[in-house]
Specification:
TIM Barrel; 10 strands; 265 residues; 11 helices; 8-stranded parallel β-barrel; alpha/beta
Length: 265
């Protein structure tokens, strides 16, 4: 039986209570994602302490992923990025990296990566603060697809960030871009996470749609090392149920996948 992908779960108001978090760990959570576009370092430090305390209590190894906002621009209920910036990493990002190093977070996700230099700049800032975080390049711009080989060579892993990617390429192209990115990451021996709207209906419903079940299974069959929940677990009504379904679907799909080593844990 194949090993299922890691369950990457975003923490937020719906899931930062200890009881709920413990339930999500029992449901199979492997990696906690912190979305640095929201919240404060004080709140994050308290969440990190809680995560590590629960991990010790339950005898589980739970790793942390810090997702930087980059040159993000909020536009009402949606968001985009500032295309006029010359450097990807903002002053806020640098402060966040310093915090992540201090907190010994394992993974750093860089938003709106366009080329290898963006990844190298992120690694340089990590080094500046004496960190050892692994850099995950988020692929969410068309230019990143054009430069994918150099980005993959520079990064420690990829995230298929389908939300913003869907604003830059035709929606019908996303499944094939996802397939290409997973294949390239697998060939390079680097982990790849598939993210955004995997079980989105579960922000309001205790069960996923049939299409969402197929989506998670598809990502697993393609060879994803991680599948991720965003608002489903951060602000949705059914965070524990979402983690449970994510794990069940991924595990069932893994039974049908060729035996492989999961590179994310």
């Amino acid at each position: 039986m194949s090993t299922r992908p890691a369950l990457v779960v975003t923490i937020g108001p719906a899931s930062s209570g200890r009881e709920t978090f413990v339930a999500m760990v029992h449901a199979g959570l492997d990696i906690v994602r912190f979305n640095f576009a929201w919240s404060t370092n004080e709140e994050r430090a308290a969440q990190i302490a809680m995560v590590r305390d629960v991990a010790r209590e339950l005898g589980r190894e739970i790793k942390l992923l810090q997702d930087l906002p980059g040159p993000r621009v909020q536009t009402g209920a949606s968001h985009t990025y500032d295309q006029s910036v010359e450097t990807l990493l903002t002053e806020e990002d640098e402060r966040s990296i310093a915090f992540g190093v201090e907190q010994q977070i394992e993974y750093l996700a860089l938003s709106f990566v366009g080329n290898a230099k963006d990844v190298e700049d992120g690694k340089a800032l990590i080094k500046k603060y004496n960190g050892t975080q692994k850099v995950i390049a988020k692929i969410e711009r068309k230019v990143a697809i054009d430069h994918i080989d150099e980005i993959l060579a520079a990064a420690d892993g990829l995230m298929v960030a389908r939300g913003d990617l869907g604003s830059e390429v035709p929606l019908e192209e996303i499944p094939f871009i996802e397939k290409m990115l997973i294949e390239k990451a697998n060939a390079a021996g680097k982990p790849v996470i598939v993210a955004t709207q995997m079980l989105l209906s579960m922000t309001e419903s205790p069960t996923p749609s049939r299409a969402e079940v197929t989506d998670v299974a598809w990502a697993t069959l393609l060879g994803a090392d991680g599948v991720m929940l965003s608002e489903e677990s951060a602000s949705g009504k059914y965070p524990t149920e979402a983690v449970t379904y994510l794990g069940r679907i991924a595990a069932r799909a893994a039974e049908h996948a060729q035996e492989r080593t999961i590179l994310l844990s």
